[in-house]
């Protein structure tokens, strides 16, 4: 069993930065692959970034490559999403999810494979 709690969201101007955190509980956290998703009003939940549990292989949606960085600290049971050069189109509720398997490529976006989700944190980027 894994419980996830996101934090770090807020209001920022375009071009600014935020770092989101996803704190996990559960003794098996280090064996889960972790993903960040986001959902804007009226839109479907969209995959943003993922990281495998072992050697930390990362994967990003094209729109955030070079701007966002996902990382994890298994000792602290926390996953981070560093977001730089934020744009108004990044505005959304951001969720972290945990899954047993480490996918390849587009498989990261299969939200139904994530067995655990946090409650989300709002990110608003003003122009």
Fold and architecture overview:
By secondary structure, this protein is an all-beta fold. It has no helices and 11 strands. It has strands at 3-7, 10-13, 18-25, 33-39, 46-51, 58-60, 68-73, 78-83, 92-99, 116-117, 121-126. A hairpin with a 6-residue loop joins strand 5 (46-51) and strand 6.
Short description:
0% of the residues lie in helices and 48% in strands. By secondary structure, the chain is mainly β.
Keywords:
4-stranded antiparallel sheet, 11 strands, 7-stranded mixed sheet, mainly beta
Number of strands: 11
What percent strand? over 45%
Helix and strand run: EEEEEEEEEEE
What form results from the Cα inertia axes?
Answer: globular
Q: What is the overall pLDDT average? A: 94
Radius of gyration: 13 Å
Topology of helices and strands:
Blueprint: E1 3-7, E2 10-13, E3 18-25, E4 33-39, E5 46-51, E6 58-60, E7 68-73, E8 78-83, E9 92-99, E10 116-117, E11 121-126
Parallel strand pairs: 2-11
Antiparallel strand pairs: 1-3, 3-8, 4-5, 4-9, 5-6, 7-8, 9-10, 9-11
